[in-house]
Write a structure and sequence with these properties.
It contains twelve helices and 19 strands. It is of the alpha+beta class and about 475 residues long. It folds into two domains: about 90 residues, PDZ domain (Pdz3 Domain); about 270 residues, Alpha-Beta Complex (2-enoyl-CoA Hydratase, Chain A, domain 1), CATH 3.90.226. Strands 3, 4, 5, 6, 7 and 8 form a six-stranded antiparallel beta sheet that branches. It has a six-stranded mixed beta sheet with strand order 10-11-12-15-16-19, with helices on both faces. Strands 1, 13, 14, 17 and 18 form a five-stranded antiparallel beta sheet that branches. Strand 10 and strand 11 form a beta hairpin.
């Protein structure tokens, strides 16, 4: 591994901070600091003094300072965050894929906590929480006014303890409580099967430390079950991201050795880097390259990658690399659009700062930030259409999101019109009896419409392309 890469350390490209978020640690700080704005710092000190002496009741000095730091960092973008002792410990635990909680990826929306994705098999998943659900209360505490970190703290706890979440489900226009028993979440990030003779399906739900080893084992199982696979579907739907080196490794599993997977660029010299499909760019430990165990056929087997609005960051790196190198057909919906890299620097023995330090770019130099990967084949999530998917939050919808430096952002009137139509349809759907409301089938099941279309693509059969999806054509034409 190069010295430059060692300095950069482990880099996180997870979608959003939440009840489970993976990240890396970086201990290198900038070598020099810009001149400090003394007048503004004097004002800060003056405000601190006034609050301490004049506020209606005594205040905790340390909390004042911590809140000031948190506010400063939170004002930058939705992914930068200050970690106190407890949240820093929880954040580091996320890289191993083991923690005690309810098992959801979350983001903040309009002061509430939004469920990005329940982790498959978790208590939240079993309780029926869905992407897009808004958490309005945690036990008896209103979420409005809590930081994302504070909300996470309240959902975490000891194993076998209970937490009650009050959920507002937009598309059903109803609020309801859900009591969930916390447990240790041992996330299995890779699953797969032979869906029919000659065709395999592998799903990655997130990118963790164990993802590469689990992926290799699952591929070995598939080829053992059917040595003559004629096609493979890599399912990245609702995969919120995770560790960059895992994304590079998964890309390298399908690409020729040495080609570019992704590049990053930011202010720091170590943030300007190109990651290639070679072991030194994804191996963490000394020893044999885990990808060497993969069957050689994986490099050439026809491949379709499934993505949707919940595919973010590390998922977009993989999809973008396989698309740019024409190794796979990308099928589904336009992805989330998180094209930024966060690093975490310890500020002491038990606190840290997660900071956006770079944008990342596909091998052809396209920035995905606030735009996402546009599939080669747009396919709806059901035969009836994709009308409700447009209501899901994407990076471009987040307040203070980082802009795309390759193409200007603009409101797309077609997209806005589609959102209005989706809202109307959602209201109609919410008035139906619960038993009659449309429900999405489980990924990988025989009712999975997009998976069926992916198999049709692999077999050269007609694919039912989207009836409803809208892509920002101005930017698409400029970058393609």
């Amino acid at each position: 591994m190069s010295q430059k890469l060692k300095i950069a350390g482990w880099i996180s490209v997870g979608a959003l901070a939440g009840a489970l978020t993976t990240v890396s640690l970086q201990t290198a700080a900038r070598g020099s600091l810009a001149p400090l704005p003394l007048e503004e710092l004097q004002q800060l000190a003056a405000v601190f003094g006034m609050v301490k002496s004049d506020y209606v009741e005594p205040v905790d000095e340390r909390k004042l300072i911590t809140d000031a730091i948190s506010g400063m960092v939170a004002s930058l973008d939705p992914h930068s965050q200050y970690f106190d002792k407890k949240s820093f410990k929880e954040f580091r635990e996320g890289t191993s894929g083991r923690f005690v909680g309810v098992g959801i990826e979350i983001a903040q929306e309009e002061g509430l906590v939004k469920v990005v994705s329940p982790i498959e098999g978790s208590p939240a998943f079993r309780a029926g929480l869905q992407p897009g659900d808004l958490i309005t209360k945690i036990d008896d505490v209103a979420v409005k006014g809590l930081t994302l970190s504070e909300a996470v703290k309240r959902m975490r706890g000891e194993p076998q303890t209970k937490v009650m979440l009050t959920i507002y489900r937009k598309d059903e226009s109803r609020t309801f409580p859900v009591t969930i028993t916390r447990e240790e979440i041992k996330t299995v990030s890779v699953k797969g099967k032979v869906v029919e003779p000659g065709y395999g399906w592998i799903r990655l739900s997130q990118f963790q430390e164990r993802t590469v080893d689990d992926f290799v084992r699952k591929v070995e199982e598939l080829y053992k079950a059917d040595p003559a696979l004629r096609g493979l579907v890599l399912d990245l739907r609702n995969d919120p991201g995770g560790l960059l080196d895992a994304a590079v490794a998964i890309s390298a599993a399908f690409l020729p050795e040495g080609v570019t997977v992704v590049s990053t660029n930011g202010q720091l010299p170590e943030s300007k880097f190109v990651y290639k499909a070679s072991p030194e760019f994804y191996q963490r430990r000394a020893g044999a390259d885990p990808l060497k165990r993969l069957p050689a056929a994986l490099k050439t087997v026809p491949l379709v990658v499934l993505v949707n609005e919940g595919s973010a960051s590390a998922s977009e790196i993989v999809a973008g690399a396989l698309q740019d190198h024409k190794r796979a057909t990308i099928l589904g919906s336009q992805t989330f659009g998180k094209g930024s890299v966060q690093t975490v620097r310890p500020l002491g023995p038990d606190t840290g700062l997660k900071l956006t330090t770079a944008r990342y770019y596909t091998p052809l130099g396209k920035s995905i930030q606030a735009r996402g990967i546009v599939p080669d084949v747009l396919v709806d999530e059901s035969e009836e259409g994709n009308v409700f998917a447009i209501l899901r939050t994407r990076e471009a919808d987040l307040v203070k999101h980082l802009g795309n430096d390759k193409s200007p952002e603009a409101k797309d009137p077609l997209r806005e019109k589609a959102r209005e139509e989706a809202m109307r349809r959602a209201e109609e759907e919410s008035r139906k009896p619960v038993a009659e409301r449309a429900k999405m089938p489980e990924f990988g099941s025989d009712k999975d419409f997009q998976l069926k279309q992916a198999l049709n693509q692999l077999k050269g059969r007609p694919v039912l392309i989207s009836k409803t999806q809208v892509v920002e054509e101005k930017n698409a034409k400029k970058e393609n």
